[in-house]
Amino acid sequence: MAKTNNPYTDAPQTGITRRYDFNVSRGVIAPDGYEKRVLLVNDQFPGPLIEANWGDWIEVKVTNSISDDPPEGTAIHWHGFLQTGNPWMDGVPGVSQCPIPPGSSFTYRFRAELYGSSWYHSHYSAQYAGGLQGPIVVHGPRNVDYDVDLGPIMVGDWWHTDYYAVVKQVMTPGSNDQTLSDNNLINGKMNFDCSTVKAGDETPCTNDAGLSKFNFQAGKTHRLRFINSGAEGTQRISIDQHNMTIIANDFVTIEPYDTQVLTLGVGQRVDVLVHAHAESGSAFWLRANMTSCSNTNQPLALAAIYYDGADENSMPASTPWDVPDPGNCANDDLSLTKPYYSMALPEPSFTQHMDISTTTNASGNFLWEFGGVAAHVDYNDPPLLRAGKAHAQFDPKYNVVNYGTNSSIRIIVNNPGPSPHPMHIHGMNMFVLAAGTGNYSAETTVLNTHNPMRRDVQMVVANGFIVVQLDASRNPGAWPFHCHVTWHASAGFFSQMLFRPDLLQKPAFNIPHDVRETCKDWARFTKNVALDQIDSGL
Asked: Residue 148, exposed/middle/buried by CB under 10 A (0-12, 13-18, 19+)?
């Protein structure tokens, strides 16, 4: 395919709107055999697939039916979507909107400006760790040909404890953010050893919940869309005796390269091609193994891949690749990941250091700081709704960083601590100029400014750094920049990046009526119901 234009600067106008109706409610499921109370979209886990073509509009009416035991607000973030000129549709309560109160609805409308694989999830507290998530596929041009699209494969850690109970644990004085997941799921399935359930726990549990299954056609090339939808665990993904050709990171197609094992941080997506070279009737394991730097009781998830003619009642007998876990949760070296379409990188108009640190507050709570602030949102006061007013001021605990009229911003993130972090930016892709160990040094760090990797989530390793650059000129708004480990965000690890507030004062950025009405509905709800917001809110 000839590189005739750049799809990252000009999406087509299809004139088509894809409409979905989501009902968010409580339910009880047992995806790994252990029964637990969860939050579901249309009674499904994972939630329904959203599917569109590049350039389509996507419209999703979200009804909040979390009305009891206890009632909760909610909001859904469309991960990786740019929301150009449309920042109120980003779905982050306390930043771009007020939460949707129980019994109310809100309709999100946004454009598929990029194509590839992604997901949606709640951004209200840690709700998505309790099941409120689902896949998205935007079909677009191919930079490499293939025969079969197997669709999205969501991989993620799984807690048997209710998500809010884990939040309470994280926010308990002296906890030091130590949490352990109970299992690892592939497309919402994996077996669990019920004999490991703690004595006295009478929760229904079965040892044979079942595994996800996929079908290969011998001689064909298959596309697999891996999504790390977990709360904490970094994944090492492989298919026994099959190489994978990586063709996209997040929403960015890249020059293809081969690997046996790929690393996927929370929130990241990697699209791969796999050639089915074995004989008909063969069967192999697909493995997702949480890395040694993740906290879990059961790290390995399995799914079965059956070639045409294979006995799907029998389990594969294949053995894994002998590729040691490097133990640092790093993404592949940036020298391997080259965007298929390059974008010019201007000189930065501003450079900022945003260091990662920890603190303990007066109540003894362990908190994460980003840029020196342990952040906390007010659901009733989203900064985006006031950012268009001249001289708007924000509570310091919101961690709003106002970049004014700067058009290209370079950010250096130093992580001197022992935990890796998947850093996620909303509203744009980061140019990833460098990543390494130790503290960033202007004297020794080589920055790649010629077609650097672009993506919306990038791992920063323990005792390491990343250098990224953001194009603030293309998308005015208030955009979160945060660690995608759910419990880290709950404990304050995020900032709000305010880009071009002068443009937000223009008539084109008048706050939509539905956004204002949702805030009025939320204000009425919180006037009558005591809100139990013990964490950051994100």
From this structure: middle
Which sign does the torsion angle of CA 405, 410, 414, 419 carry? Answer: positive
Chain-centre distance for alpha carbon 63: 22
pTM over 0.85: yes
Q: Which amino acid is at 484?
A: H
Q: Which CATH class is domain 350-528?
A: mainly beta
Q: Which of 174-183, 249-258, 353-362, 460-469 has the lowest mean pLDDT?
A: 174-183
Average pLDDT over residues 126-153: 97
- Is residue 256 left, alpha or beta, with left meaning phi > 0 and alpha meaning psi from -120 to 50? beta
Distance separating alpha carbons of residues 265 and 286, to the nearest angstrom:
18
DSSP string, 58-70: EEEEEEE---SSS
The phi, psi pair for 214, rounded to 5°, reads -135, 150
The DSSP bridge partners found for residue 238 are 287
175: three-class secondary structure by DSSP: coil
d(CA 526, CA 167): 21
User: Which residues 6+ apart lie within 8 Å of 48 measured at CB?
Assistant: 20, 22, 41, 42, 134
Q: Which residues lie below 8 Å from residue 268, measured CB to CB, with a gap of 6+?
A: 228, 249, 250, 331, 422, 455, 457, 459
Cβ–Cβ under 8 Å, residues 476 and 87: yes
All structural domains of the chain with their residue ranges = 350-528
Length of the chain: 538
pLDDT for res 290: 95
Q: How many CA atoms lie within 13 A of 451 on its CB side?
A: 13
Q: What pLDDT shows up at residue 1? A: 44
User: Which residues make beta-bridge pairs with 3?
Assistant: none
C-alpha angle 160-161-163 in degrees, rounded to nearest 5: 115
Q: CA-to-CA distance for 364 and 371, rounded, in angstroms? A: 21
Secondary structure of 472-499 in HEC code, one letter for each residue: CCCCCEEEEEEECCHHHHHCCCEEEEEE
- H/E stretch holding 38 reads strand 36-41
Rounded to whole angstroms, the Cα distance separating 473 from 408 reads 7
Percent of the chain scored above 90 by pLDDT? 87
- pLDDT exceeds 70 at position 10: yes
Whether residue 183 is predicted with pLDDT greater than 80 in this model: the reply is yes
DSSP for 441-476 reads: -TTTPPP--SS-EEESEEEE-TTEEEEEEEETTS--
Provide Rg for the chain, Cα atoms.
Answer: 22
Q: Which of 118, 192, 123 is nearest to 157 (CA)?
A: 192
In the chain, % of residues over pLDDT 70: 99
| Average pLDDT estimate for 132-140 | 98
The amino acid sitting at 513 is H
Instruction: Give the amino acid at 426.
Output: H
- Cα separation, 96 vs 83, whole angstroms: 11
